[in-house]
Amino acid sequence: MNTAKRLLACGMAAAMVAGLTACDEETPASGTSGSNSVAAPAAVTTTTSASTTTDPNDALDMTDKDTKEFDTSLYQPSGNAGTLKYLGYYDITADQKGTEQCLIFQSDLFGGKIEYTSTPSGSAFFEKLSNQIAADDSPDIVEKSAMLYPGNVSKNLFEPLDGKIDIDSPLWSEMKDVAESYSWNGKHYYYPHRITTSFALNYSKKTIEENDLPDPYELYKNGEWTWDAWRDMMTQFCDKDDDNIGFYATDTTVDAFILTTGTSIIDTQPTGVITNNLANPNVTRAMQFIETLCRDGVSYAKQLGDWVPPQTFATECDRLLFLCMEPEWTYIAATEQLQNPKGVDNDIFDTVSDFAFVPFPRDSQADAYYQGYDTFGYLVPKGAKNIDGAIEFINLNRAYDVDPVIQAQVKKDHCQPEKIYFEKGSNVGKEKWQITWGEQEYDLWREMCDPANFKFVTEDAYGFTTDFQSQLATVVMDVVENGASWTQTSAEFSPIADAIVAEYSLA
Fold this sequence. Notes:
By secondary structure, this protein is an alpha/beta fold. Helix content is 34%, strand content 13%. The chain folds into 2 domains: 239 residues, Periplasmic binding protein-like II (D-Maltodextrin-Binding Protein, domain 2, 3-Layer(aba) Sandwich), CATH 3.40.190; 237 residues, D-Maltodextrin-Binding Protein, domain 2 (3-Layer(aba) Sandwich).
């Protein structure tokens, strides 16, 4: 290994759940034009660090404080990255999936420093970013949730990075198609360094077994996990008891189900061609399938309240068969709910939980197994003063993601985590809880991020305005919660979608 320096860095025992890492994944979670002397492994099949708890403050506490080698054959830093102003609704230097990268960036090897400015998420964030750009006080970097594609990408809010990142280099080439899909009008503003999971069907293996239901994972592995198989399983479960619930979904997870047809509600192309697919036969067919599930009585009727987080699912999974939610966050949070109760003396250690997940079922009428997916990365706001430092940070994250030494350790950190202990407070010396991933769950989680296994598609309806997102959510959930007709409600909403298309389309 060509190593320029050994670094003191946060150990591999830390990583944030998707639910704490970006609200496109539910809340905060965790690149390089480097030398071509090393062929990089496929980034789409890797993650950076072990997911351990849902506590956002665990990052620095959970470091093993060992020296860590950074492979400079993957990316050669300048040693003078300078101060990087970061604007966000969470601190990447304390986030479990970003702490180690930030420590490396702030080492002598990179010569960087990160200054964090906090702001609320959502509309308040976009307003803060716009105001700072207008005042010539731009941050140098923001994470992916700051991007609306094409909403604010088309409004000159970000610096194009063409010529600054070599997408054809060995380390970036695996992400070329993804980066191209986010280009706009011939320019590239976003180079994601990682593919992540979007939504999935989470369940309890214990509930499946106790109700003599087929194992969803085995159906998936055998190529039998289809819409009909999913429906039949929920029907069988709900027929056993009137209190049983087949699935809980939100508007975004219903949209993820639609994507299994290979068609999104709104489709945005880098050329500026935007298509309203509300009346597309595939979208209609998927929503009419959801209508049937609702009529059959397997959908959620707010028996457990308006919102069902993983923690509620953990205690109610004996009667709620499927929770449609981001799988990494759900797996960790549900497990922690049962294994890490109040009081460390009651914690359960070194035990794989009964929770599991599978992708959304395959649409038998589609020409491929389509799934929604997500990405993570950073953008450089317009007017940033330290663009070079921002590029170094993006390259660092990419190099970190594909470092073969780091990646060789990742699975062990998930499935066989080293014990950690409280170093201060009343529990000093006692073991600190962290999740032990099951091999099946870990392998499937990575498999779900690999385009060799699925044909990925995104829902572009979220990329315009927050108001449009809310309006679409109302239309979708009117079907799920109130039994409305998709054909009727989508027809009524379609002119609003057409107006959005007309506003942003370059065609």
